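In response to reviewer comment 3 from the previous cycle, which asked for concrete evidence that the modeling workflow produces usable outputs, we include below a single protein chain processed end to end. The sequence was submitted unchanged, and the resulting structure tokens are shown without manual editing.
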Amino acid sequence: MQDDDIFKMAFITAIIGVVGMIIFSNYILPREIEIIDIDKGMLDEEVSLEGYVSKLEKSKNSNTYFLEIIDNTGKISAVIFEKTVIEIEKGNFTVKSLKNRRIKIVGTVTQYNGDMEIILKDAKSIKIIA
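The workflow returned the following structure tokens.
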């Protein structure tokens, strides 16, 4: 094979790969986990978990909310920043209505003051189960 032929094959393969990634990127789902599985190795990873909102607090300085979510394995804080709160409240429910409800969230694992937490990205990141 000539160098030109190898280059053309590599180029075509790369184009097919990029197009495939674009097409299938919407079908990649975050990993479903339990709270006990969350550790520092998961920082900046998008995950999905299901739990019960045992506590809900609003920030004193902004419209940011902090949820304490528990499941059978532990508890973790989830943060809903003001922009996402506004999106949520344009829908069918308010953030305050989440207390004592079973929810499913999708968010990014972060660490704040040594504690692991999950930050919700948008209104689609939270669903009430019961």
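The radius of gyration is 20 Å. We consider this sufficient to address the reviewer's concern, and the full set will be provided in the supplementary archive.
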